[in-house]
Amino acid sequence: MAALTQTVAGSEAPPGVPWIACRSVSSGYLGTEVLKDISFEITAPSVYVVLGPNGAGKTTLFRTLAGILSPSRGKVIIGGTPGDHQTARDRLHYLSHLDGLPEGFTVREALAFYARAELATRVDIERVLDKLQIRDLSGSYLGQLSAGQKKRVSIARIFLRERDIYLLDEPTANLDPKVAKEIRSLILELSRDKVVLYSSHNLYEAREIGRYVIVIKEGRLAVFDRIENLRASKFRLGVRLLNPSDSLEGWAKEGEYFVRELAGPEEVQSVLHDLDVRGVRLREAREMDNPLQDIFE
Amino acid sequence: MNRKTAGRVDEPASKAGGRSYLGPTIRRSLRSGRMVLVVGTAWSVILGVLIAVGSGSGFASSFPLILPIFGAIAAIGALTVFTSDRMKGVLEYLMAYGISPRRLFTNFIVAALVSISIVLVIAVVASVGVYVARGNRLSTSLLLLLGVYAIPMSYVSGAFATTVGMYWSALSSPREGMNSPLGIAPFLGILPPVAVLVLIGVFGATVGFSTNGFLLVTGAALSVVALTVLYLLGNIGHLLRRERLLSNA
């Protein structure tokens, strides 16, 4: 299969220098290729959601971009510098799906441990304790924390110092919905002038946070596009009626929703208008399927 | 934001100075292995003092022989931290920061040597102090055994146990109990001194033993073990793939 070489250009792309360039990259573990001939360029700051089924190669992609794994073929270029150079690594923040927190430390000590690599100061540590709302945990030993609390500490690490590129492998896994939302807000804030690669299994989260989607399937780049350009193979509109005991002729019932398949989202306006004309009182109308769902099928 | 106004990505400041992680590795190894350190040091002091009090002149020939065993066991703290860091993904982060596997291994070996130094200094000062305080003289044979055998053998055995233990840990799936690198480390550590003692015993029983013979056997053993450690460390790039240091590789 030929490599897909795709570039998504944005308004703030550094002229001539992609933030990240993957050129025919193959990579994997102990001689087994997981990523196969991946090529793409990122030239604009934004959130790029990396999606793919389990084992597709998302984590391998992050590890290869972060310089942890060396490509068996091809090149990774970060800001014009080969990915294995220290200057390239200094532009990246990498958040693994593992917490990576040193055993036996308190939260504050763990942040100080990583602050050393970041050349961050005590002031920076205090700032991230507040930013991630973990000040009350700062004296607690990591072994006493829940998985979600550990994840917040791990995320705090990437806010110690600013970098150009953030590689975030499932940053909201294990977090409760409220904290996950706060983390997404922080990440969206970052993406104004940074490149954020963000992997997730949550399609609704991906749609909420991402402007671009990178889909990896069986180790190959399957899609690299703006999320709004992705369309589901079918568009199903669901409506919930104000009076649950009412029915809607010609619509299928799915739980609390009456559902109808349309040719596309452009039909929604007229369908809702027809319902209004018929005097149907609606509580809610929504697209029933996530277009990103097709990626996994 | 590391960008110039023209929009090109700027060079970030060098961070090489903050990157060795040797200091934190030593502190964490001492903290993690503190119980082993305390117990190892206490046993070596108790045995040393008992020998000094009980056997008098026999101290010179017996105390230096047991010292490397306790010294090598002190390396367990560093190995504990290495194994934990690999499983928890800390090594993955440190590699992402640009710290090489060789640098990581070297840090843990140095941390092990620092731990060994603590045991050696306390044990030698306390035991030899009691020995001298009881009116014994520091004989040449005692100084020879301590300076040529016990102290260097402790360091070399500890470095050997740490290096082989880290390779073992990296090359194997996470294991617990006696099959883990931590379970095997004490046996690896006491292997070189025991081998030397066996060789000395065999030579002594068959052809008789001289100071030169002792120096030859000890020197050869130290060289072989030290060269093994240096070979494993120097060729880590060829012998150990980076993905072996990841938690799920």
Q: Can you describe this structure?
A:
The complex is a heterodimer of chains A (297) and B (249). With 297 residues, chain A is of the alpha/beta class. Chain A folds into 2 domains: 5-229, Rossmann fold (3-Layer(aba) Sandwich), CATH 3.40.50.300; 235-296, no CATH class. Chain A has helices at 58-65, 86-89, 107-118, 122-131, 147-157, 177-190, 203-209, 268-277, and strands spanning 5-8, 20-29, 32-42, 46-51, 73-78, 81-82, 92-95, 165-169, 195-199, 212-217, 220-226, 235-241, 252-254, 257-262, 282-287. In chain A, strands 7-8-9-4-10-11 form a 6-stranded mixed sheet, with helices on both faces. In chain A, α3 (107-118) packs across α4 (122-131) and α3 (107-118) packs parallel to α5. The longest helix of chain A is centred in the middle third of the chain and has 14 residues, at 177-190. In chain B, α1 (22-32) packs across α4 (76-88) and α7 packs antiparallel against α8 (181-206). The relative contact order of chain B is 0.14. Mean pLDDT of chain B is 83; it is low at 1-18. The interface between A and B is large, with 44 and 39 residues.
Structural class of chain B: mainly alpha
Total number of helical segments of chain A? 8
Q: What is the strand tally of chain B?
A: 0
Task: Estimate percent helicity of chain A.
Answer: 25-40%
Low-confidence stretches of chain A: 1-13
Poorly predicted regions of chain B = 1-18
Overall body shape of chain B: globular
What's the average pLDDT of chain A? 87
**Class computed from helices, strands and strand pairing of chain A:** alpha/beta
Question: Which outline of chain A best applies?
Answer: globular
Radius of gyration of chain A: 22 Å
Let me know the average pLDDT of chain B.
Answer: 83
Oligomer: heterodimer
Distance, first to last CA of chain A: 20 Å
The domain count of chain B comes to 1
Query: How many distinct folded domains of chain A?
Result: 2
Return the string of H and E elements of chain A: EEEEHEEHEHHHEHEHEEEEEHE
Order of helices and strands of chain B: HHHHHHHHHH
Radius of gyration of chain B, in angstroms, nearest whole number:
21 Å
